[in-house]
């Protein structure tokens, strides 16, 4: 009996030690992942004049809002950069929610000639690196259509993406066809079936689509940098580049701007984090 109790006590001790080691490892990994974010926020509250120096520390010498003031005083368009990012991101979210969901529904539930070939071509488009398409897209948008320094140049290339079409198609494939047929028997048109039956059943995938599209559009730098040359049309990510000079960097104001640009990401994630978790399995639905 004493030996059994001793073995049980030893097992509990090993269990507790293992949990402590795992918890310490997880905290360490979490700290490594969050360290750049912590570093950015801490340095955004440092003095603006300190930022131009070569030596930088993790903790600022003193906490102040000077860097935030310097960010908005740097250019008369500093606030406009945030507005440009918001407008282009929201427009792309709306475009993808509407057009990608309609395309995904068509590929999943409608029959038309060349459907499989067209879907395969879209899948091939997903495999092409993003940077490869930028040159022809730039020539088309800037040289052909003369849309440089416009909201259309920022918005149109991201209005619908191949990945979002694939995501919605996979989800709609799992919706029973009987529901669609019953809607048609009740007198609904194809659009009526989509709006009244499919969309209410697809709130999860549409929410995931909207979240990922907003995050991708808000954080993108390369394309807005190509199609904007006027400071008034910069997005926040392109605007932050203006704090980098040949011999120095306005580090504090740049960190302040980066912190401000991250605020929508924080709000979006913490308010809709359940959709992020559900979105992990959205594309795994089988028909």
What does this structure look like?
- The protein is mainly alpha-helical and 287 residues long.
- It folds into two domains: 2-66, no CATH class; 79-284, MetI-like fold (Orthogonal Bundle).
- It is built from 14 helices and no strands.
- Helix 1 crosses helix 13, helix 3 (78-109) packs antiparallel against helix 10 (203-219) and helix 4 crosses helix 7 (162-173).
- The protein is flat and about 70 Å long.
- The model has no long low-confidence stretch (mean pLDDT 86).
Q: Mind sketching the topology for me?
A:
Layout: H1 2-44, H2 66-74, H3 78-109, H4 115-127, H5 134-144, H6 151-155, H7 162-173, H8 177-185, H9 190-201, H10 203-219, H11 222-227, H12 236-240, H13 251-271, H14 273-279
Helix pairs in contact: 1-13, 2-13, 3-7, 3-10, 4-7, 8-9, 10-14
Q: State the major sheet.
A: none
> Mean of the pLDDT scores?
86
Number of domains: 2
Q: Which residue ranges are poorly predicted, with pLDDT under 50 across at least 5 consecutive positions? A: none
Query: What is the approximate shape?
Result: flat
Provide the structure class. Answer: mainly alpha
Indicate the radius of gyration in whole angstroms.
Answer: 25 Å
Strand elements, count: 0
The number of distinct helices, counting runs of at least 4 residues, comes to 14
Which architecture of the largest domain per CATH?
Orthogonal Bundle
Short description:
This protein is mainly α and 287 residues long. It has helices spanning 2-44, 66-74, 78-109, 115-127, 134-144, 151-155, 162-173, 177-185, 190-201, 203-219, 222-227, 236-240, 251-271, 273-279. The radius of gyration is 25 Å and the shape is flat.
